[in-house]
Task: structure prediction
Amino acid sequence: MSRSAHPAGPRHADVWPEGHYSAPPADVNALDPKVWAQTVTRTDTGEVSVGGIGVATLAEEFGTPAYFVDETDFRARARAWRTAFGHDADVFYAGKAFLSRAIVRWLHEEGLNLDVCSGGELTTALSAGMPADRIAFHGNNKSTDEITQAIEAGVGRIVLDSFQEIVRVAHIAQSLGTRQRVQIRVTVGVEAHTHEFIATAHEDQKFGIALADGQAAEAVRRALTLDGLELIGIHSHIGSQIFDMAGFEVAARRVVALLAAVRDEHGVELPEIDLGGGLGIAYTSDDDPREPHEIAKALGEIVTRECEAAKLRTPRISVEPGRAIVGPTAFTLYEVGTIKPLEGLRTYVSVDGGMSDNIRTALYDAEYSVALVSRTSDAEPMLVRVVGKHCESGDIVVKDAFLPSDLAPGDLIAVPATGAYCRSMASNYNHALRPPVVAVREGEARVIVRRETEEDLLRLDVG
Ligand code: LLP
Result:
C-alpha cells in the first residue's frame, strides 16, 4: 500500500462552510464508543483493531472496501434485546437490515425470531435452520408464490397488509388445507420524526390499513370470518431511525384501543400485538439512542396500563428491531485514493467504494462518522467529504467530517455503524463488485458473504 505525500487540504479555516458538522473534534484520533462496535479499539501502535485483529491485516487478507462485523457485539446486542423483553415477549430481528446464513444462526442461538419480507429472505432463513414457526412474513405486495412458500414452510405468522391480501392468504391457506396464523398491519396515524422515506405510520403511504376511518376494524371483521385464517393480533410499525419514544407510545395506545373494540364487537381478545422496529442508533456522536431495557420498560408499561384501563388481558408483545441490533456492529473499511483540496471549502477524499456499498447518504441525506484507522496522526483536523468512485457527484459516503490533514492515498479509513441497510441495499452500479462481509471474533476473521467477482457479473449477463 502506498503512503505517498500529497498537498494537504485547508488547515486553518476561520469560518467553516455550512454543513452537518458542529466543530472539529477535540481529538481526531478518538473513537466514540457510541458509534463504533464494542471490540473496536486503537492498539499501542495507533492502528485500529476489531475482535483483536488490526485493520491493516484485515485489509491485506480481505481487501477493501469490505464490511467487518463484530460478532461479539452482534450477539451481545441480540441478547440484550432478548433479555430486556423477557419470556412474555418476542424479539423478531428484521432481516431487511442485513441477512446472511451466519446471521440467522447467531440469531437462532441467541433465542431471537426473524422477520422476513421476501421469498429470498425466507429461503435464506430456512436454509440456515431458523425454525419456520419463529419466522414472521411481511410485505405490502407478497406474490402468490411467496405466500404459498411461506404457508407451506409453516411460518409462525403472516402480517397482512391489505384487504386483497386478507382474501388471498385465506384462500391459499385453505387450498393447502391449513389455517394460517396472521396479524393485520395497521397504520396508526403517527407522524414519526424521521426521514419521509422511512416513516410508515401516517395514513398517506403504501403500508398497512388505516385505523382512523374504521378500515382496520373492517379488516378484522373480514379476517375473523375466513376459515383459512387464525387472526392472532395487530401489527404496527411507525418508521425507522426514531429516537423519541412518544410515537411508539401513541401507537401502542391506539393498537390496544383496537383490541378493546374487537373484544366489544366480536367477544374475541386477540392475544398478540407487534409494535414493529425502528429504534434509532448513533451514526455520529450527536445521536443518543435508547437502550433495549428502556424501550422494553416503556412499551411494557404503556401496554399494561392501557389494557388494565380497557379491562383486557395484556397481550403478548413482539418487536422487530433490525438496525438497532446489527447497525452499530459493523464498519466499512476503505482505502483512500485521490484527495482533492478545495481552499476555503473542504477536501474531497475519494475511497475505493461509494454509493454502491452505502446508498444511505445519497438516499436519505444520512449522516455518518469516519476515522483514519491505519494510524494515528498529530496533524490538525481538516474538513472532508468522503466520496466514492462512481460516476455521479451525489456519490457521497460521509457528507461532512474531520480527518487529519496529513491524510494520504493508501491510508485506511473506516465508516462506523454500517451494519444495517448498507450491504443489504448495495448495488452493482457502474458494475461495482459488492464488498464482502467478514465476521470478526476473538482473534479470528471469516468471510460470511464473499466479495462479488467479475465472473458473478458475467454469469447473470446471458445476452
Ligand atoms: N418491521 C417492519 C415491518 C419494517 O418495515 C422494518 C423496516 C423493521 C421492522 C425494522 O426497522 P429498523 O428497526 O431496522 O429501523 N432502508 C432504510 C430503512 C427502511 C426500513 C424498512 N422497514 C434505511 O436505511 O434507513
Summary: Residues 94, 96-97, 115, 138, 198, 237, 240-241, 276-279, 320-324, 360, 364, 420-421 surround LLP (CB under 6 Å). The chain has two domains: 3-70+328-460, 138-321. The chain has twelve helices and 21 strands.
